[in-house]
Write a structure and sequence with these properties.
Elements (H helix, E strand, L loop, with lengths): L2 H13 L5 H8 L3 H13 L3 E5 L2 E4 L3
Antiparallel strand pairs: 1-2
Helix pairs in contact: 1-3, 2-3
Length: 61
């Protein structure tokens, strides 16, 4: 994992609830589209799940 993936994942864990990419982007002061790409990559690696449409949370594994 690169540094941005680690930062996004830890921010999602700290927020403690399923979040939208825009919420993470706002918390990190990053572009929403960039965060969406990072979350998509994390999802493909199985590190993020989508409990409901457009919301993401860290997986327990």
């Amino acid at each position: 994992m690169d540094e941005k993936e680690i930062t996004v994942l830890s921010t999602m864990k700290n927020l403690g609830k399923p979040v939208r990419p825009g919420d993470v982007a706002k918390a990190l002061n990053l572009d929403s589209k960039e965060v969406s790409k990072i979350i998509d990559g994390l999802k493909k690696k199985g590190m993020v799940i989508s409990p409901k449409r457009c919301y993401y949370a860290p997986s327990d594994s």
